[in-house]
């Protein structure tokens, strides 16, 4: 990353962080009883990590110029395998390993399908979304799976996943931050991350230079599959139940988190930090609207509006930079 790109990304990260604090200040004025107490932030630490884990991995997919709309059904399938294996073996960790492995396998299938056949990712993953959701519905009979009393929070194995570190900090927030840090390290400090940005900027040039385009594209889908599996396992463990509808409603939240954070819709650039802040903003907006006394029906309207505005803003900024570069 050259100095100009680094400075631009740093500026964008500062701006989006400032917007988050302004949002908190706004809701603190609107609903001081909620936003000036610690309980709502503990709730954020329990719920936002599921969005954050998937969104940070989705950042790499979008940077590469791809799109994956099947992660929600992947979360459902991974959570189903986790619940099934945990109950049948009595081991939460064995169930978690099976669930995450399922997510990774689904991501690999998605990636191989897209890279080997040449089908556009957005079309292929829409099909996979229906396929994996249909599979989990058929396997479960459309019924929920309660994890049982053996998976209470005082169970050492379940505590590793969604227990309370130090008696108050939800472990899923720890996992989300570790995953985001690992993703940032991979993206900013490895040659693979450089390849992803180059491919997203111009895939044809990347192919001409002999870059492993197919392997890199497959890799981002596999990485997202791993993240969806992890999020599905943690969400199931936190609720104590697996539901056939698990993952539904995450599509808008995840993509909004990615694009609000400054990842280019055209590919080639993005930041993990921006996505982390974006996911916190999306979780804050929903809680803030309800806490302020507004109807819950406003949440999706506002989420969609924020997504449209952020995508349009970054697209216009990118267009102006391209035009100024051409004129220069």
Structural commentary:
This protein is mostly helical. The protein has one domain: ABC transporter involved in vitamin B12 uptake, BtuC. 77% of the residues lie in helices and 2% in strands. The strands form 2 sheets. It has a two-stranded antiparallel ribbon with strand order 1-4. Strands 2-3 form a two-stranded antiparallel sheet. A hairpin with a 3-residue loop joins β2 and β3. α3 crosses α9. The longest helix has 30 residues.
Helix and strand arrangement:
Elements: H1 3-30, H2 32-35, H3 39-63, H4 71-89, H5 92-117, H6 121-140, E1 145-146, H7 156-162, E2 164-165, E3 169-170, H8 171-189, H9 191-201, H10 203-208, H11 213-239, E4 241-242, H12 250-260, H13 272-291, H14 298-327
Antiparallel strand pairs: 1-4, 2-3
Helix pairs in contact: 1-13, 3-8, 3-9, 3-11, 3-12, 3-13, 4-5, 4-6, 4-11, 5-11, 8-9, 12-13, 12-14, 13-14
């Amino acid at each position: 990353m050259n100095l100009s790109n680094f400075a631009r990304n740093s500026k964008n990260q500062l701006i989006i962080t400032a917007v988050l604090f302004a949002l908190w200040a706004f809701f603190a004025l609107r609903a001081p009883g909620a936003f000036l107490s610690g309980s709502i932030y503990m709730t954020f630490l329990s719920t936002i990590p599921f969005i954050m884990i998937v969104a940070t991995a989705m950042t790499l997919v979008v940077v590469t110029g791809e799109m994956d709309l099947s992660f929600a059904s992947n979360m459902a399938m991974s959570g189903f395998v986790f619940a099934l294996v945990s109950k049948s073996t009595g081991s939460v960790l064995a169930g978690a390993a099976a669930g995450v492995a399922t997510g990774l396998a689904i991501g690999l299938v998605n990636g191989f399908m897209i890279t080997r056949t040449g089908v556009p990712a957005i079309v292929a993953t829409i099909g996979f979304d229906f396929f994996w959701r249909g599979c989990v519905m058929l396997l479960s009979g459309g019924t929920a799976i309660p994890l049982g009393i053996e998976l209470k929070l005082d169970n050492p194995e379940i505590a590793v996943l969604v227990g309370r570190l130090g008696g108050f900090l939800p472990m899923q927030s720890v996992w989300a931050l570790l995953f985001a840090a690992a993703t940032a390290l991979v993206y900013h400090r490895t040659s693979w991350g450089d390849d992803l940005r180059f491919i997203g900027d111009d895939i044809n040039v990347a192919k001409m230079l002999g870059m492993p385009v197919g392997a890199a594209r497959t890799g981002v889908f596999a990485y997202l599959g791993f993240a969806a599996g992890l999020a599905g396992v943690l969400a199931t463990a936190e609720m104590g139940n697996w539901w056939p509808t698990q993952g539904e409603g995450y599509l808008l939240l995840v993509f909004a988190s990615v694009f609000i954070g400054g990842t280019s819709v055209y590919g080639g650039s993005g930041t993990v930090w921006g996505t982390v802040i974006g996911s916190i903003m999306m979780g804050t907006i929903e809680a803030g609207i309800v806490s302020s006394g507004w109807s819950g029906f406003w949440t999706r309207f506002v989420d969609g509006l924020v997504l449209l505005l952020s995508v349009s803003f970054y697209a216009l900024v990118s267009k102006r930079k391209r035009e100024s570069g051409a004129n220069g």
